[in-house]
Design brief:
Blueprint lengths: L1 H14 L1 H7 L2 H15 L6 H15 L3 H14 L5 H8 L4 H16 L6 H13 L4 H4 L5
Helix pairs in contact: 1-2, 2-5, 3-4, 3-6, 3-7, 4-7, 7-8
Length: 143
């Protein structure tokens, strides 16, 4: 069983260098997982939210095309052990501007379908609290 798991991980790593980059960077893995959790926060995968996540991954992390799907499969298979709280703890050491950027990405995904669900609001509010950010820094003009 362990040999089979090792074989699958090796195949995934050798197949796509972008997956290898994500696998080798726990902070990047945690960030993408947190962003995907926002896509799932309202209990359904909305295409507008998923497309926003794809664009953010391409623009901010250089993950696009087929690599996006490969990274998501990797995180689905191996990222389940990272809780939201663990992911947020990683970001506390980020510089202020980087934390604001992360929170803005979360807000952008939450608003992509033109509906702010209660669960999305809670995830964003908790993230702002943990990252020690004021809502005005993330979404100017809104609280």
């Amino acid at each position: 069983m362990a040999l089979e798991l090792f074989s699958k991980v090796r195949e995934l790593f050798e197949g796509d260098p972008v997956v290898r980059k994500v696998a080798d960077d726990p902070a990047l893995s945690a960030e993408i997982l947190l962003l995907f959790r926002m896509v799932l926060a309202d209990g359904e995968v909305d295409e507008a939210e998923l497309e926003t996540l794809r664009r953010i991954c391409a623009d901010a992390f250089g993950i696009d095309g087929e690599s996006f799907g490969n990274v998501m499969r990797y995180l689905q298979d191996y990222g389940y052990e990272t809780t939201t709280a663990q992911a947020l703890a990683i970001f506390r050491g980020y510089p202020h501007e980087r934390r604001v950027e992360l929170a803005r990405h979360l807000a952008e995904i939450a608003k992509a379908d033109d509906e702010l669900n209660q669960q999305e609001v809670r995830l964003l509010a908790r993230t702002l609290e943990v990252l020690r950010l004021d809502p005005h820094e993330v979404v100017p003009g809104e609280a």
